[in-house]
Design a protein that fits this description.
Number of domains: 2
Oligomer: single chain
Order of helices and strands: EHEHEHEHEHEHHHEH
Mean pLDDT: 97
Radius of gyration: 17 Å
CATH topology of the largest domain: Rossmann fold
Structural class: alpha/beta
Shape: globular
Largest sheet: 7 strands, parallel
CATH architecture of the largest domain: 3-Layer(aba) Sandwich
Distance between the termini: 43 Å
Number of helices: 9
CATH superfamily of the largest domain: NAD(P)-binding Rossmann-like Domain
Bound molecules: nicotinamide-adenine-dinucleotide
Strand order of the largest sheet: 3-2-1-4-5-6-7
Helix content: 40-55%
Number of strands: 7
Length: 248
């Protein structure tokens, strides 16, 4: 079987919703032993044999406790947990800027710093969730863009430093994917106009729709697998043509 993850131990942050949930389920279906690290625990993960460790990834100390609850050998680390924010620099408040940094940037630092020692003996793969905003400007995403630029840059830095330890590190950059992240954005910013705005957001991908969490999960599965053994330090767009095809 291709993309076989039997006997692999995988950690997925933010695996209780949206893209992370699809990643956890996909890795599990390919035979991995999956641990989700999330603020919330959900029944559908538990019933599929996916372990959840309720933790806030913004605290390095919390993650040290997580280390005691996962296997000594970690093969796959998926840094997926993240939060969004709409606004240009003038209407981005300092506490929101700091909050986005703490989850999206420091959360990735905290997880890699905590778990990479457990990957070094046997090698493994790290996949970071970047975004189209790591590559192109999207209106009013100032703080979010700052964080996803950092995620992209951390990816090749880690890939370089750990190449001789057999650890590959790559990122994926989705355009809009239909998850609770998008639904919350619409209800908060466009109350009463959610359906209309959903259509507008769908059209911003040249393919004419948003991505599905499973589509992102399948790319992550490939990058985790031994079939992707020649790939490190790279970023993969998965965006319905958003970055390359939106010109006139
Ligand atoms: N949905 C999109 O359109 C889209 C596009 C590009 C990139 N992304 C990125 O994909 C990732 C997942 O997005 P999603 O749409 O599935 O989001 P989501 O809101 O559906 O799920 C995010 C999950 O992360 C968890 N989480 C948030 N903060 C946490 C913390 N401090 N500690 C532990 N867990 C925490 C939440 O509890 C939730 O389960 C994010 O990094 C996001 O930036 C999403």
């Amino acid at each position: 079987m291709k993309f076989d993850l039997s006997n692999k131990n995988a950690l997925v942050t933010g695996g209780s919703s949206g893209i992370g949930k699809a990643i956890a389920e996909t890795l599990k279906s390919q035979g991995a032993n999956v641990y989700v690290i999330d603020l919330n625990e959900i029944e559908s993960n538990t019933s599929q044999g996916i372990n959840t460790i309720k933790t806030d990834i913004t605290s390095l100390n919390n993650l040290k406790d997580v280390l005691k609850k996962v296997p000594d050998r970690i093969d796959l680390l998926i840094n997926n947990a993240g939060v969004g924010l709409v606004g240009n620099i003038e209407n981005t408040e300092e506490e929101d800027f700091d909050r986005l940094y703490k989850v999206n940037v420091k959360g990735v630092y905290n997880c890699i710093k905590t778990f990479i020692p457990n990957m070094k003996a046997n090698g493994g793969a790290i996949i970071n969730m970047a975004s189209i905003v790591s590559h192109v400007a999207v209106n009013n995403r100032f703080a979010y863009t700052m964080t996803k630029g950092a995620v992209h840059a951390m990816t090749f830095s880690i890939a370089k430093d750990y190449i001789h330890e057999g650890i590959r590190c790559n990122s994926v950059s989705p355009a809009r994917v239909h998850t609770p992240f998008v639904d919350e954005y619409l209800s908060k910013n466009y109350p009463g106009k959610e359906k209309e705005m959903f259509k507008n957001l769908s059209k911003t991908q040249p393919l004419g729709r948003m991505g599905k969490p499973e589509e992102i999960a399948n790319l992550v599965l490939y990058l985790c697998s031994d079939e992707a053994s020649f790939i490190t330090g790279s970023d993969f767009s998965i965006d319905g043509g958003f970055v390359k095809l939106n010109g006139n």
